[in-house]
Amino acid sequence: MENKMGLSHLINNLDKVGLLTAIVVLIMAAGTLYYIIRIAVKNFSVSGSADAVVDQFWSTTNPQEAIRAMESYGANEPFSKIALDCAQAAAHHQRHEGSRLVEALNRSEFIDRALRQAVVRESGKLENGLAFLATVGSTAPFVGLFGTVWGIYNALIKIGQSGKASMDVVAGPVGEALIMTCVGLGVAIPAVLAYNFFVRANRVTLGKFDEFAHDLHDYFATGARV
Predict the structure, then answer these.
(1) What percentage of residues in the chain have a pLDDT greater than 90?
(2) pTM (2 decimals)?
(3) pLDDT in the model for residue 188
(4) CA–CA separation, 137 vs 32, rounded Å?
């Protein structure tokens, strides 16, 4: 009996419920790996270019030169996009001097509104995938536990039907069913660790977003960096 127990034996003898549970855990594992790699690459790219982008912006001599410098970056670079949104808002407000727009919102308020929207948008992009990691981290152990409970249930039914209840007969199927709990924990732990790491990393980047946005507001609202 013991020689027949193991992961391969468990997979080959899964019923529909057990198979569905295994598929769910497999999807969670694949999704976790995908988002860990994707978010890590994104965060590395953003953090690696942040100082260079900000320094290049402030090294320019006028807003027009700064805009051209920011336009040279790709669509996935957030600091340049925040700067461009701010510059576009300032230019839009200037073009509509004397209109109801200017009467309703002064230049400072209009730029501040555009910056807030840009920061929220770029922050949302950074957080993409974190909800999945948090969900997997909190639910994968229970999915694995469900698979274990279901496996033990089926094993006990088969043992009852065979009429044999000795320790060597019971231990194999029950131990085999516990594999699902191990798999669930194996998926959940990396997801939780990655989630916590990325949340801390994002806090640093969000702080840089806010600092850059405040400087941009002062620059485009007053015409000079304060």
Answers:
(1) 46
(2) 0.81
(3) 96
(4) 9
